[in-house]
Amino acid sequence: MIAGKRFGGETINQEDSEAWRLRNAIKDTTYLSGVFVVADAIPFLSWFDFQGHVGFMKRTFKEMDFILDMWMHEHFRKRDEGQNGKCEDDFMDVLISMFEEDDEICGHNREVVIKATAMILILTASGSTAITLAWALSLLINHPKVLRQAQQELDNNIGKHKWVQESDIKDLKYLQSIIKETLRLYPPAPLTGIREATDDCHVAGYHVSKGTRLLINLWKLQRDPQIWSNPNEFQPERFYNTFDQVDFQNQDFGYVPFSYGRRSCAGATFGLQVLHLTLARLIQGFDIYTKEGVIVDMNEGLGLALPKENPLEVMLQPRLPLELYESL
Predict the structure, then answer these.
(1) Where does the chain bind heme (predicted)?
(2) Are 254 and 224 a contacting pair, CB within 8 Å?
(3) 105 part of a folded domain
(4) Which residue has the higher pLDDT, 266 or 255?
(5) Averaged over 43-47, what is the pLDDT?
(6) Can you give the residue range of the structural domain that contains 199?
(7) What are the residues whose beta carbons fall under 8 Å from the beta carbon of 297, sequence distance 6 or more?
(8) 121 vs 59, which has greater pLDDT?
(9) What is the largest CA-CA distance in the chain?
């Protein structure tokens, strides 16, 4: 969708492969976005990177920039060879077409703008979507009754002789509830970006002066017992019944997993489309469980995007006719 790339199979674990390099660049960027750098608090120490974070950031940026530059020039080459139009345009094709006549955009080099825009969409949509998918699968494995009910909904609406499609998602209300509940418990970014008060105001009984910078704790907000009963429990049914009208831009601000307003997550729409379809395909196509049936560890790791502390490892058993897997 972003750059016309799809990775899978054995190559994703080969250290010299593009897929392996991209996966690790995304993982490192997500981790670095949440680390504390001493020089940010004590600027005169910026000359000495004794934590090693700044050097790590520079290496990670160089790797990400190399991959994006390679993708962009592949797109330029295809356009020069007249290959455009032979397949559906991706996001990078659209950006190149928009800025085809411009060498600079708002004072920045055109190529820099294209790469930066693609990178932010990859990080905010692809990276956080993978993390949210891992949380959703972890919750479903630990709540097998919910998993079976989601599979039953898919069997009733789609059947077992064809794959669920994106156009079917609107009819899968329980699946939507599972994703909403996952995002309530584990928002993609538990802290919002920095906000600045445009006027004097009061927040939770505290006086906030104009110009004050604030960070909003979405993780805590979405577990508020004054709004949610059993706030730390995984209960998708709450979005199927009591909170069935709550959406991802809830103006009551009790549920805002992608933040709110003009500075909300840029990749929310793309990420939700991928998340719904990917989770639907996985639970439709496979029985999912852990080796020896152990409970999945739900400890949270470090990083701005709230990753799992320990990677999720699962066993997949096909539950559809074999010819459907061959057609993928």
Answers:
(1) 265
(2) yes
(3) no
(4) 255
(5) 82
(6) 144-326
(7) 308, 309, 310
(8) 59
(9) 65
Residue 43 lies inside a defined structural domain of this protein: no
> Dihedral of CA 171/174/177/181: which sign?
negative
CATH code of the domain containing 223: 1.10.630.10
Distance of CA 146 to the CA centre of its chain: 22
**pLDDT of 6 higher than 60:** no
| Residue 265 marked in a binding site | yes
Report CA-CA distances (Å) from 209 to 38, 187, 192, 193, 242: 27, 28, 19, 19, 37
Name the pTM for this structure.
0.77
Pairing, β 286-289 against β 315-318: antiparallel
pLDDT band at 228 (very low <50, low <70, confident <90, very high): very high
In tens, the pLDDT along 111-166 reads 888 888 888 777 776 678 888 999 999 999 999 999 999 999 999 999 999 999 99
Confidence label for 175 from pLDDT (cuts 50, 70 and 90): very high
Q: What are phi and psi of 144, to 5 degrees?
A: -60, -30
- Sorted by sequence, the CB contacts under 8 Å of residue 221 that are 6+ apart come out as 253, 254, 256
Report the alpha-carbon distance of residue 255 to residue 249 in Å, rounded.
8
Q: Please give the residue that has the higher pLDDT: either 165 or 4.
A: 165
Q: How many helices (H) and strands (E) does the chain have?
A: 12, 8
Q: Which residues are CB-neighbours of 220 under 8 A, at least 6 positions away? A: none
Predicted local distance difference test score (pLDDT) of residue 250: 64
- Is residue 111 in some structural domain? no
Is 250 among the domain residues?
yes
In the numeric block, which tokens belong to residue 84? 């455009």
Give the ranges where the chain is alpha helix by DSSP (H): 18-32, 38-41, 53-80, 91-98, 110-121, 128-142, 144-157, 173-185, 218-221, 237-240, 268-285, 322-326
